[in-house]
Amino acid sequence: VYEEAKLIRQEVTMAIQVNGKLRTSLIVALDIEEESLKQKVLEDEIVQKFVGMAPIKRWIIVKNKIVNIVI
Asked: Domain 4-70, CATH 3.10.20.590 — does that match?
């Protein structure tokens, strides 16, 4: 006997890259909006260390898999 509701994933672990290099990973909601995801990534301490005050040229987001920040 199992509960089907518990089998459905609510969260996903996303790899966070800066300039194509893996820096960290974050657990986020499966249905997170793109702007909320960007905000959460930028709030991460490790990402802040690598990005700093550099202007972000491009965001590459593969839904529920990876986020790559190009600086």
From this structure: yes
